């Protein structure tokens, strides 16, 4: 199973990425985590990217793509699956990631899109700021990260829809509920992924599933 996640900050990429990785026993490649780790260790790369992270801006594409290429090579050696969290974040990254995937025979089977509204995302990120001390979880930088998501990241979603690998999930509910829905959707796709060629797939939209089952509102423990 090879999955990439597209979601605004606070939708739960980190939490759900870890759950998916544990469920399918595949590596969780989280670009934000990898970058923050470099900053914490004070590596040359960490020093080069720190200011971008603090301001909520995108790190230069090539830095992230080189880092991810290494991780995808390792994932291939480890069995061929992955869950990518944090990339692609713009169209250029989407295209280059696809090139890397083609070259390594590791293109994604599923683009998992988590949806939540701004008020909820901001609430979760501010709640997280009180617990962890991420330099980018301040009201001002959160607004900047959300704006960046809508202008440069969200437009990529249509591309995955056209490729027929998009799965959209309503991430407004609690982390366990969202997690359950994701795993059910991915498990249901497994036999299909084995049989249907990537370029012949149709998009799956589960965003109204929560409403259909009468789910409402959100829970507090879902930031990330
Ligand atoms: P969030 O989705 O909550 O913003 P992440 O941990 O995914 O959190 O990313 C944190 C920061 O790391 C981003 O604001 C950005 O500065 C940097 N970053 C992560 N992934 C990428 C990427 N693919 N391209 C450029 N910058 C990135």
Explain briefly what this protein structure is.
The chain is α/β, with parallel strands linked by helices. The chain has 10 helices and 6 strands; from the N terminus they run E-H-E-H-H-H-E-H-E-H-H-H-E-H-E-H.
Q: Keywords, please?
A:
224 residues, alpha/beta, six-stranded parallel beta sheet, 6 strands, 57% helix, 11% strand, disordered C terminus, binds adenosine-5'-diphosphate
Describe the fold and architecture.
It is a single chain. This protein is of the alpha/beta class and 224 residues long. The chain contains ten helices and six strands; from the N terminus they run βαβαααβαβαααβαβα. It has a six-stranded parallel sheet with strand order 2-3-1-4-5-6, with helices on both faces. α2 crosses α3. The radius of gyration is 17 Å and the shape is globular. The site of adenosine-5'-diphosphate (ADP) has 18 residues, from α2 and α3.
Write the layout of secondary structure elements.
Blueprint: E1 2-6, H1 13-24, E2 28-30, H2 31-41, H3 44-55, H4 61-77, E3 82-85, H5 91-104, E4 110-115, H6 118-131, H7 139-153, H8 157-163, E5 166-170, H9 175-195, E6 204-205, H10 209-212
Parallel strand pairs: 1-3, 1-4, 2-3, 4-5, 5-6
Helix pairs in contact: 1-9, 2-3, 4-5, 6-7
Bound molecules: adenosine-5'-diphosphate (ADP).
The site of adenosine-5'-diphosphate has 18 residues, from helix 2 and helix 3.
């Amino acid at each position: 199973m090879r999955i990439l996640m597209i979601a605004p900050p606070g939708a739960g990429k980190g939490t759900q990425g870890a759950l998916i990785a544990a469920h399918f026993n595949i590596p969780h490649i989280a670009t934000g985590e990898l970058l923050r780790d470099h900053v914490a260790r004070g590596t040359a790369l960490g020093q080069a990217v720190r200011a971008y992270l603090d301001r909520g801006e995108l790190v230069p594409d090539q830095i992230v793509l080189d880092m991810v290429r290494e991780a995808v090579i390792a994932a291939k050696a480890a069995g061929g699956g992955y869950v990518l969290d944090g990339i692609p974040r713009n169209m250029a990254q989407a295209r280059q990631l696809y090139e890397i995937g083609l070259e390594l025979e590791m293109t994604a089977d599923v683009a998992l899109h988590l949806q939540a509204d701004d008020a909820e995302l901001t609430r979760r990120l501010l709640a997280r700021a009180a617990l962890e001390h991420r330099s980018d979880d301040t009201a001002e930088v959160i607004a900047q990260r959300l704006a960046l998501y809508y202008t440069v990241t969200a437009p990529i979603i249509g591309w995955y829809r056209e490729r027929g690998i998009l799965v959209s999930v309503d991430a407004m509910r609690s982390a366990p509920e969202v997690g359950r829905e994701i795993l059910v959707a991915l498990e249901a796709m497994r036999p299909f992924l084995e049989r249907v060629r990537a370029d012949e797939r149709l998009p799956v939209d589960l965003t109204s599933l929560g409403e259909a089952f009468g789910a409402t509102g959100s829970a507090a423990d879902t930031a990330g």
